[in-house]
Amino acid sequence: MSTHETTAADERAHSASDPIVEIRNAEVVFEMDRGVSRVLDDVSLEIERGEILGIVGESGSGKSMLASSMLDAVVDPGVLSGEITYYPEDGDPIDVLALSDHELRQLRWEEIAMVFQGAMSSFNPTMKIRTHFEETLEAHNYSLGEGMDRARELLSDLYLDPDRVLDSYPHELSGGMQQRTLIALSVVLQPNVLVMDEPTAALDLLMQRSIISLLEDLKAKYDLTMVFITHDLPLVAELADRLAVMYAFELIEQGPTQDILHDAGHPYTRALLNSTPNLDAPLEEMRPIAGSAPDPVNVPAGCSYHPRCSLATDRCVAQDPDSRPVDGDHVVDCHHWEDAADEIPLNHLANMEGDR
Ligand SMILES: Nc1ncnc2c1ncn2[C@@H]1O[C@H](COP(=O)(O)OP(=O)(O)OP(=O)(O)O)[C@@H](O)[C@H]1O
Fold this sequence. Notes:
The protein has 14 helices and 12 strands. The protein has helices at residues 8-16, 63-70, 101-110, 129-139, 144-157, 162-166, 175-187, 205-222, 233-237, 257-263, 267-274, 314-318, 337-343, 347-355, and strands at 19-32, 35-48, 52-56, 79-86, 94-95, 112-115, 193-197, 225-230, 242-247, 250-256, 324-327, 330-332. The chain is globular, with a radius of gyration of 21 Å. Among the domains are: 122-190, no CATH class; 265-355, no CATH class. A hairpin with a 7-residue loop joins strand 4 and strand 5. The chain has 356 residues and is an alpha/beta fold. The strands form 2 sheets. It has an 8-stranded mixed beta sheet with strand order 6-7-8-3-9-10-12-11, with helices on both faces. Residues 30, 37, 39, 57, 59-65, 75, 231, 296 line the site of adenosine-5'-triphosphate.
């Protein structure tokens, strides 16, 4: 999708912004026997210093590829191109894709930390949690005394008993405790950005909600910028200042959370909102999105959502829409976004109106 053309609104939004990470025209390609698989397609995104950004999309839409791209960590034989820039608070911008392996290792953890789905696979099952913290601090030449004090404080912040947790093997902790411990481990080197890829997917609803509120506290206390990646729109909407929606390996809409929830311009975002339980609409009003997401080897021409879209016209088949401003920082990649609100009413809004 073309995000190359900068509109006047983009310029205005850009000049007012203070990005900590900037992604420009990122693309990830795998050469497969059955063809070229483009699993990230010309994605441009700015992560603002101090914000909580939610990245939302269906399974397989490219969310994890976007997360790995931020740290030049796309697995072989995937080929990442584009520009990834990290802006430290002080000092010159860092071109992430030009870093040596050593510099990249420093950037990861010390500046930008990642937490992935399924905490158990991130721990070494033969090592106590204490050793995980100690090895991380030593590998980055951090003071062990200060670092372990910070580890204890972080574990307490996350409502864990530091002594018990540090003395345990990973399998001795529940799923929720493992995930909170992993978050503490990710933050122990005092990074500025914490990227979490489906950090609560394996947890029950209550534990998900409690981790969300702990993350809010952690962000405020440690002055973190957070990126929360998930398929669970209602969950991330509780936390995020801004949402970016992915469909078929592209970003198709970005904006402040409330604008997306109440005034989404992309038919896919509106369908996603209508297909999601928990947004104040009764279960019988949930409408699954008809059709299925495209195979990355065979993405439809034009707007990749057109085969599933009730508003699609010949123009959508022929022409990939550019990003266009809806209002302020809210941008959408759709030829027919002005008709979307009338054509695809939002269930949860209708119910809220009914409550008045
Ligand atoms: N190592 C790989 N080689 C080739 N294709 C891959 C590889 N890893 C992932 N893909 C493909 O890249 C696409 C995007 O995957 P990605 O994991 O980023 O999606 P996702 O939105 O994070 O999904 P989920 O929520 O299920 O994790 C998918 O079509 C997936 O099959």
